[in-house]
């Protein structure tokens, strides 16, 4: 077994109704004033007002803001950072999906670091050298894992790229995961965020950086998603399915923080930056086609994935069993109504060159289970364009 370091610095409070304890948690930690941040969609929901009320009821000051941008850009982060600084808050609470939480991470970092967030993006001129403003994350979706991860994904509109600020200092100090907040999530959002979690679990499990703890978390998350995502999409009020998906998303997040990601995320980030394809949609669409290419890099683990997703691999050769993993994912994507071809999301073959270029520059491509060339990425895109996935 190789040496490894396992990171999980976030304290996690998990359970239905736990978000109502936020006021007591802030008081326990000695905070005097919170900056409560979400996006305009969640800001219209009763949960946002209820959270603000709970904070104030505990005697904690609160500034409520619904200006978190979906797919946060450099400009929006730089604009809000001084607003938070001038508010006098000593803790930031991010309520929402991956975008508000990623937005909040960058905002918190800029409270203690000079310059623009652009300076700290991958390849930038500055490094994150210390803690930012304390951050508490309350996810309203089960998929991104951003509440326990070290990355803040930011869109550079000038260059048409999605890049990240990545540092352990960005990891939220506390995550409050309340499956009751997920009940009102629309079916399509449930589906796409669930596929985001599945991608995290699969890519971390087969990554060249995988280690025993991330493997255990990743495989368990794959199994739980396979057993619960269809039901959560079909019946959003099913609390058992919602709770299991919330737990699976958390485990997948912890897995990829340690095991890493691969080509699916490289392609998905490029698609998102250039064509504004939602991250979960892009991941779910590309995942089976990338697995079709990657499975030869680790037949045993892909066979495990197939079995975890409910495929009967009894009597199959290892290669046959491994090849079933991509088919199982493709069936799941189709069952829950997520696009499975590039034309469905408005991407044509003329769009391939910049997507390939962005993918080849993706910093985690080196730990993909197979060493990929630009031609390999083009082949994955070709298959996704045509809708051919079977090995």
Description of the molecule:
The chain is α/β, with parallel strands linked by helices and about 400 residues long. It is about 50% helix and about 10% strand. The protein contains 14 helices and 8 strands. The strands form 2 sheets. The chain has a 6-stranded parallel β-sheet, with helices on both faces. Strand 6 and strand 7 form a beta hairpin. Helix 13 crosses helix 14. The longest helix is centred in the middle third of the chain and has 23 residues, at about 210-235. The radius of gyration is 20 Å and the shape is globular.
Q: What class would the helix/strand composition place it in?
A: alpha/beta
CATH architecture of the largest domain: Up-down Bundle
* Helix content class: 40-55%
Terminal Cα separation, in Å? Answer: 31 Å
Portion in strands: 5-15%
How many domains? 2
What Rg is obtained from the alpha carbons, in whole angstroms? 20 Å
Count every helix, treating DSSP H or I runs of 4 or more residues as helices. 14
Largest sheet strand order: 1-8-5-4-2-3
Task: Write down the secondary-structure element order.
Answer: EHEHHEHEHEEEEHHHHHHHHH
How would you state the average pLDDT, rounded? 95
State the CATH superfamily name of the largest domain: Dehydroquinate synthase-like - alpha domain
User: Within the CATH hierarchy, at the fold level, what is the topology of the largest domain?
Assistant: Dehydroquinate synthase-like, alpha domain
Total strand segments: 8
The CATH class assignment of the largest domain is Mainly Alpha
| Low-confidence segments | none
Shape annotation: globular
């Amino acid at each position: 077994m190789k040496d490894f370091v396992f990171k999980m610095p976030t304290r996690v409070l998990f359970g239905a109704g736990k978000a109502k304890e936020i006021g007591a948690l802030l008081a326990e930690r000695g905070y005097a004033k919170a900056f409560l941040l979400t996006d305009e969609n969640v800001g219209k929901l009763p949960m946002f007002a209820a959270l603000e009320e709970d904070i104030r009821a505990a005697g904690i000051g609160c500034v409520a803001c619904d200006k978190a941008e979906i797919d946060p850009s450099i400009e929006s982060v730089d604009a809000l950072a001084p607003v938070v600084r001038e508010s006098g808050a000593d803790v930031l609470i991010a309520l929402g999906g991956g975008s508000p939480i990623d937005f909040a991470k960058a905002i918190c970092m800029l409270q203690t670091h000079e310059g623009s967030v652009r300076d700290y993006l991958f390849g930038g001129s500055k490094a994150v050298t210390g803690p930012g403003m304390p951050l508490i994350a309350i996810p309203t979706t089960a998929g991104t894992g951003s509440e326990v991860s070290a990355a803040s994904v930011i869109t550079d509109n000038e260059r048409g790229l999605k890049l990240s600020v990545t540092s352990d200092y960005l990891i939220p100090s506390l995550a409050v995961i309340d499956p009751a907040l997920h009940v009102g999530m629309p079916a399509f959002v449930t589906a796409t965020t669930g596929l985001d979690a599945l991608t995290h679990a699969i890519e971390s499990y087969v990554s060249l950086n995988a280690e025993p703890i991330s493997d255990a978390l990743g495989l368990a998350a794959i199994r739980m998603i396979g057993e619960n995502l269809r039901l959560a999409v079909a019946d959003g009020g099913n609390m058992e399915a919602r709770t299991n998906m919330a737990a699976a998303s958390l485990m997948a997040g912890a897995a990829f923080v340690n095991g890493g990601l691969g080509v699916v995320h490289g392609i998905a980030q490029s698609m998102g930056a250039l064509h504004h394809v939602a991250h979960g949609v892009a991941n779910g669409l590309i995942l089976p086609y990338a697995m079709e290419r990657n499975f030869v890099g680790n037949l045993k683990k892909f066979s495990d994935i197939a079995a975890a997703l409910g495929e009967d691999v009894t009597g199959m050769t290892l290669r046959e069993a491994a090849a079933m993993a991509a088919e199982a994912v493709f069936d799941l994507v189709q069952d829950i109504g997520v696009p499975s071809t590039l034309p469905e999301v408005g991407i044509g073959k003329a769009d391939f060159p910049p997507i390939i270029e962005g993918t080849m520059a993706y910093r985690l491509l080196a730990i993909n289970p197979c060493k990929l060339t630009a031609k390999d990425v083009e082949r994955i895109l070709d298959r996704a364009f045509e809708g051919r996935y079977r090995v």
